[in-house]
Description:
Blueprint (H helix, E strand, L loop, with lengths): L4 E3 L7 H17 L12 E6 L7 E8 L8 H9 L7 E4 L13 H8 L3 E4 L11 H8 L3 E4 L3 H7 L1 H9 L3 E8 L4 E3 L11 H12 L3 E5 H7 L16 E5 L10 H4 L6 E6 L4 H9 L3 E5 L9 H10 L4 E4 L3 H9 L5 E6 L9 E2 L15 E9 L2 E8 L2
Parallel strand pairs: 4-5, 5-6, 7-13, 7-14, 9-10, 9-13, 10-11, 11-12
Antiparallel strand pairs: 1-3, 2-3, 2-4, 8-15, 14-17, 16-17
Amino acid sequence: MSESLTLTQSNPQSRESRDVQHMSAALTLARRGLGRVWPNPAVGCVIVKTGHSGVDDQIVGRGWTQKGGRPHAETEALERAAWGARGATAYVTLEPCSHHGETPPCAEALIDAGVSRVVVAMEDPDPRVSGRGLARLREAGIEVAAGVLSDEAAAINAGFFRKVQDGRPLFTLKAATTLDGRIATHSGDSKWITAPETRAWGHRLRATHDAIMVGVGTAIEDDPELTCRLPGMEDDSPVRIIFDSHMRLPLTANVVRTARDVPTWIVVRTGGDRARSKAFEDCGVQVIAVEPDSDGYPDIREATQQFARRGLTRILVEGGSHLVANMLEHDLIDEIVWMRASKLIGGDGIPVARAFGVDSLGQAAQFTRKSVVDAGADIIETYVKRA
């Protein structure tokens, strides 16, 4: 059955402004896939029958990448559009794939559907695609326009691009702190620093990432569930990753007891206690052995590469201070979501990151603030790594 939605305009629009309008809608659809589609990118597609100068444009199909990465956005949109796709314009947030994988190429599907024009936000950096999808469309006589809202599209799939280009996922640090940057009192008390509205924001953030990662100290001290606990989003909980060099995590911990319900990985040093490792595996935990670094901890860079090989594209880092410091030292934090409560603890409180070798300001990890949001009594700031 075809899908149809008419957009009536009071004033004619230029082709450029219409392209921006429809691509913006496709990007909104793409965001629905974040945290759900790994190892694939999150893509949105809108198929439009164009009216006169933008008046009475008719959306005949919409789609986005489905859970687990299949079906692709174009396939979903074309199925909804049915016969309405012939002669229409397809707006796609990422270059349609051109290679045969688990499903036929989306470029071929668009050609077979008879679309007359394809507007793409950006080329796919995956070497299996990278320009080939657009070339195939042009060979078939389809008009192609690329680069519409490319920056917005790149931001959505920054994790996928990081995996393709650098062999590691994108890492977002989530910090819930007091005004003076403390995550807990000296005794370890941290519930709750931030307000309920802020904690709900944090759960939504979890749902947009493929995995949540914490150090074993945090896992033992807080015994967290590391799930998305918002109504209607219980099935959107990501993979849980615990850095645990010596496998100290109790088998009774929440993340271990529920490992058969929510995927749980533990990163350990190679050469560890095999019996202990098997006990975790018997509970449904995946044990990832990594060569130790000079300090005896699992090498963080090797671990990130293993995550990428397993398909992860976006990982949310939620502590503790040793793990965060290790990642900052190795320049692995790409984004920060800083949730700041209007409280003060003092210098004996536990910091977000332990010391990580900064002797001068020139060595400091540097970020650019992207947004500030009021959340009740708290403030939520978003930062991206400075280029």
